[in-house]
Amino acid sequence: MKDVTQLDQGWTLHHAGNQLPAVVPGCVHTDLLGAGLIPDPFLETNETEVAWIGRQDWTYTLDLPAHGTTYERTDLVFDGLDTAATITLGGTELGSTRNMHRSYRFDATGLTGELKVHFTSAYREAERVRALVGDRPNVYPEPFQYIRKMASSFGWDWGPTLPTAGIWRPARIERWSTARLARVRPHTTVNGTTGTVELHLDLERTTTGADRKLTATATIGEHTATVTVPAGQDTAVIVLEVPDIALWWPRGYGDQALHDIDVTLADQRGPLDTWQRRIGFRTIGLDTSADEHGSGFTLMVNGVRLFVRGVNWIPDDTLVSRVTPARYKERLTRAVEANIDLVRIWGGGIYENEAFYDTCDELGLMVWQDFLFACAAYPEEQPLRGEIEAEARENVARLMPHPSLVLWNGNNENLWGFRDWGWEDDLATDSWGEGYYLGVLPRIVAELDPTRPYTAGSPWSGSWDHHPNDVDHGTHHSWEVWNRQDYAEYRTTVPRFVAEFGWQAPPAHSTLRRALPTEDLAADSPGMLHHQKAEDGNGKLNRGVERHFALPADFDRWHYLTQVVQARAVSAGIEHWRSHWPRCAGTVVWQLNDCWPVSSWAAIDGDGRLKPLWYELRRVFADRLVTIQPNTDDTTPTLALVNQAAEPWNTLVTLRRVSADGTTTKTTEIPMTVEARSVLRLPVPNALAPAAGSTKEFLAADADGLRAVHFPVPDKEFDYGLPEFDVTVEPVAGDEAALDIVVTAHTLIRDLLLQADRLAPDAVADRGLLTLLAGEQGRIRITGAPGTDAATARTALYCVQPA
User: Under 8 Å CB-to-CB from 546, ≥6 apart: which residues?
Assistant: First the structure.
């Protein structure tokens, strides 16, 4: 068997004659932070103080002593180098790298001494390539499309500009003889109750191992298959059938059955190498067929058509080597708790570590994987073309064992950008990436991973016969609403699949206080503006508030109202689109997470705190949803009940017309049955509907503890009275860490929010925005704020106030 030595100790980082201990995996920024040589770039405006790091060269060294061995071959293996590096060992150059998204293996047989990994500045390498291939347009003034590196490390409209360098994934020495398993690709299929895995093996042999006959054996439980590999052959296929197989399902549709598979390569003397993974058996389909509305985009798992409840994922830390398996587990568990069933890995980030996909396999979260192209015209000439093909081949093979991976996507917004962002004229005959998205990438997926669907881009209408962002064909990105309109405009269209849309809000108050410890917080204070990367971001935030509320001068009210508007905006879109299933087959919210403390579209902020949007996602993505849909022509609104559960929903809906002072003026109860995986829509009875434009009445619908409200006018026009409520605090039996904050309403209380982190930085509430009618009681459970009394709790409670 091969011998493996991890190279995770004893490294030194060198720059300009200085040296310091280095951590591997890691990067230059984390080493400098660990040595106390730079300020935290996530705090205050420190990002600008460390901008010099990305423009310097850096060298890592490690002493590799001689190792007595009887192995025929010694390989130096790097799972990830960021990015342009030259590697030498004992003065012998082993090779160079130009791609963060690939792994590297160098023959180091017989070599010893100083191992040196020298990194050239990512800027210098990008400019070198730009000089070779020529200028191309992109959305930011940074050269990220000229180097195969995480694009968002150069900054984005939610992220800092911190181009990293370093050995960002594990490094090791592997010693082996005769042959090894260079690559294993498992194709899983299901036929009736039988699962079949077809294992495609690529082997590497030593010179003496070339003429030896080998065997390869695959095992799942009690089931085994073996193939003989003749001398001189370096490929093989093992077919293993497993009867009565338990299927893998997305969360909410069934269990996440996972099966351990072992592959062993051996010769007559015994085992040489092994490969172990967990795989799942399921079928994936993507229905893009034409219908009366255009052409759809509906995912199918095991033959079941899904409405996707998704979120976009960005790297969870700009310094990506800091993201641990535990952090993946925490973030993705939060996704499941918010009733999310799909995570789209966005194309300006990275192919995530195995722990990400392992966790998604376990939790039943489907993964939509972008190839790493975003918001730019990408040259198709060398040296980039060869790197891109090698990168795609490696990562398709690496990730295909994961049953959670359901879709490959060619790029983010580049097909749209070519058509709408002025690129088409600017590029003339220059290459821009179309050959990747419509040629190279689908060819690689078809060859290596034919059981999964591929789409050329997001958004993409399926062909150039339609506009790339056509709402009636394929996937759609809805950004005009956030950029220029009121969120009510989400209700004017029914896209076939909404792959991106969202609304900004600042992070939690305690996150801001940690990031800006010396600043008097204000919407336009220097630190707040530095941690707002979107073009005219605060202007859009303010206009979003002003369409519904008087814009407050007080920061705390501004902070509360921007978070309310974010939650309302996203829920308005999701409720509308869910109510039009199956015409609309999914929404993927931008975005789940943040990579630092920032005002952004995220539901979980950069410190891991839950914004009101997260709680709203949990509500609107639940299997069962009650919503009242306003009609754009001021006619009677529509009551819609959405049932994504596997069983029919039999419920009694209570409709109430309520006056601004809290008096119920009209009530009716309607028994309703909503079939499984379906939507029931009906007009609100005229006798219950408030008059169009009414400033004194609203509509409430309740069913099985779910509530929807409809106000005919924006809040600033509604005749709210002063909110009146009592607050008490009750201990929770059996849980000393928890308290119940009990709010008793004497008037209408709209969008009540307990900002738990104002009571203690680590405090968490179990619910977000809450609307109470006069006489109702709401119970909010908090953990992490022991000793909170009623008076203190009241200071952390916010609700809508009269204009």
Answer: none
Element holding 749 (H helix, E strand): strand 749-754
Spatial distance between the Cα atoms of 57 and 49, rounded to a whole number of angstroms:
17
Q: Where are the beta strands (DSSP E) in 374-519?
A: 405-409, 454-455, 476-478, 498-501
Opening angle at CA 191, ends 186 and 197, nearest 5: 15
Q: List the Cα angle 180/182/188 in 5-degree steps.
A: 115
pLDDT tens profile 178-190: 999 999 999 999 9
- Residue 262 one-letter amino acid: D
Is residue 468 within 8 Å of residue 456, measured between CB atoms? Answer: no
Strand order in the sheet with 84-89: 18-21, 12-15, 58-64, 113-119, 84-89, 92-98
Residue that has been written with the tokens 């992220």 in this structure: 159
What 8-state DSSP symbol labels residue 685?
P
**Which tokens in the block code for residue 422?**
């002025």
CA dist 298 and 286 (Å) reads 6
Contacts of 131 (CB under 8 A, 6+ apart): none
With contact defined as beta carbons under 8 Å apart, do 281 and 257 qualify?
Answer: yes
For residue 634, what pLDDT band results from cuts at 50, 70 and 90? low
- Angstrom distances, CA of residue 681 to CA of 212, 235, 573: 69, 57, 17
Q: Angle at which helices 555-578 and 612-620 pack, to 10 degrees? A: 20
> First CA to last CA across the chain, in angstroms?
75
- For residues 217 and 263, the answer to whether their CB atoms sit within 8 Å is yes
How many angstroms from the chain centroid is the CA of residue 541? 23
Given the structure tokens 């990747």, which residue do they identify? 436
Residues in Cβ contact with 464 at an 8 Å cutoff, skipping those fewer than 6 apart: none
**Beta strand extents in 314-458 (DSSP E only):** 342-345, 366-370, 405-409, 454-455
Residue 635 has a pLDDT of 74
662 contact partners, CB below 8 Å, separation of at least 6: 745, 746, 747, 748, 773, 774, 775
Say which residue the tokens 């099966």 belong to. Answer: 259
Reported as a single tens digit per residue, the pLDDT across 435-452 is 999 999 999 999 999 999
Q: How far apart are CA 44 and CA 42, in angstroms?
A: 7
Query: Tell me, what DSSP letter sits at residue 9?
Result: S
- Kindly provide the b/e burial profile for residues 211-223, where b requires at least 16 CB atoms within 10 angstroms of the residue's own CB: ebebbbbbbbeeb
- Give the three-state DSSP class for 390: helix
Edge to edge, the sheet with strand 749-754 lists 770-772, 749-754, 797-798
Distance CA 249, CA 282 (A): 7
Which helix (H) or strand (E) covers residue 284, if one does? strand 284-287
Q: How far apart are CA 285 and CA 396, in angstroms?
A: 18
- Cα–Cα dist 696/712, whole Å: 9
Looking at residue 182, the DSSP 8-state letter turns out to be E
**Can you read off the two tokens belonging to residue 656?**
């109430």
Rounded to whole angstroms, the Cα distance separating 182 from 202 reads 5
Interhelix angle 441-448/384-399, rounded to 10 degrees, is: 30
Determine if the pTM surpasses 0.70.
yes
Q: In this structure, is the dihedral angle defined by the CA atoms of residues 274, 276, 282 and 285, taken in order, positive or negative?
A: negative
CA nearest to 645, candidates 625, 627, 629:
625
Burial 515-525 (b: 16+ CB within 10 A, else e): bbeebebebee
User: In Å, how far from its chain's centre is CA 329?
Assistant: 13
pLDDT tens figures, 767-798 = 999 999 999 999 999 999 999 999 999 999 99
Q: At 128, is the secondary structure helix, strand, or coil? A: helix
CA distance to 312, 361, 364, 409, 452, per residue, from 396 (Å)? 20, 16, 20, 12, 11
Closest CA to 348 of 324, 325, 373, 369: 373
Is the separation of the CB atoms in 283 and 301 below 8 Å?
A: yes
Of 237, 236, 226, 234, the closest CA to residue 264 belongs to 226
**Residues paired with residue 501 on neighbouring β-strands, in sequence order:** 478
